[in-house]
Amino acid sequence: MMTQGDKAANKHMKSDNVQAMLMIAPFLIGFILFGYVPIIYILRYAFTDFGGFGECKFTGIANFVRIIKRDPDFWQSLLNAFLLAAGKLAVEIPLALGLAVLLNRKIRGMNFFRVTLFLPSIISAVIIGLIFSLLFASHNGMINAILMNAGLIAKPINWFNTKWKAMFILGLASVWQNYGINMIFFLMALQSIPQELYDCASIDGAKGIKGFFYVIFPVIAPIFQSILLVAIVGSLKICDLVIACTNGQPGGTTEVVMTYIYKSFFGKSGRNIEVGYASAMSLVTAVFLGLVTVVYLRATKKLKEIV
Hints:
Low-confidence stretches: none
Number of helices: 13
Number of strands: 2
Order of helices and strands: HEEHHHHHHHHHHHH
Strand content: under 5%
CATH architecture: Orthogonal Bundle
Strand order of the largest sheet: 1-2
Radius of gyration: 25 Å
Mean pLDDT: 87
CATH superfamily: MetI-like
Largest sheet: 2 strands, antiparallel
CATH class: Mainly Alpha
Number of domains: 1
Structural class: mainly alpha
C-alpha cells in the first residue's frame, strides 16, 4: 500500500516528466519538420519528373538511370568531394590533435590561445569563402602582394584558373574553418584522462611521443573514432564554402556533389529547376555516405579493442 510520501513523490515525478516533455517539444517538432519531412518529399520526388511547378509526372527509375549512364558531371562532383575531404582531413585532424596536446597544459594564459584558435569555427562558412577568395584574388589579393613584395614571384598568380590550385584554396579554407572545433573535441578527450595515468606513464618511462602513442592515444581512441567520423561526413557534405569561394569554377571543375545537387534543385548557374532529378541525386549521395560510414566503422573497430 502506497504511503502519503510515495504518492507525493509520484506526483512530483509526473510533474517533472510533463515539464521535461514541454521543454523538448519545440526541438522535437522542429527536428521532425526539418529533418524527416524533407526526407519524405525527397523519396516522393526522386521517382518523378518535377520542375518545382506544374505537373509532377511519375517516371520510375528514369532519374537513377540518367545518373548512372548520362551524367558524368555528377560522378566527377562526387569524386571531387572525396578528394577534397581526404586532402583536407589529412592536414586538419593531425593539426587539431597536435594543437590539443600542446594546449592541454596548466600554463597561465593558455585559455587565451584556446579561444583564439577556436574563433575561426564560429565564423560563417560563406564569410570564410569570401575571405579566401579575396585573399587569393589574382590582381589585388593580399597573398600575391606579399609574395611579390618578398620577391618570390615576378607577377601575380591566378589561383583560380586551374582545378588543382582552386581545390588547394578550398582545402585550405576548410581546414582553417574546422580545425578549431576538432581541437576542442580532442582537448576535452585529453582532459578526461586521469592525472594518475600520466604519472604512472611517466614513472614507467613513457614520455613524449612514446607516451602519447602507448598511453594517451589508446584511451582517447573511441573518441578519436567518433570525431574522425563526424569530420569525414561533414567534409563530404561541404557546400556553402565552395559556392562562396569558387562557385565550382573554373568551368565547373571544383564542383562538389552538394553544390551540384543544390544548383540542380534550385536552377542555379543557368540550369533548369529539376526537383525530381536533384532528389534522386540526393538519395544516391546518401547511399554513398552510408557506405562510407559503415566501411569506416568496420575498419576502425579495433580502436575500441585496444583500450
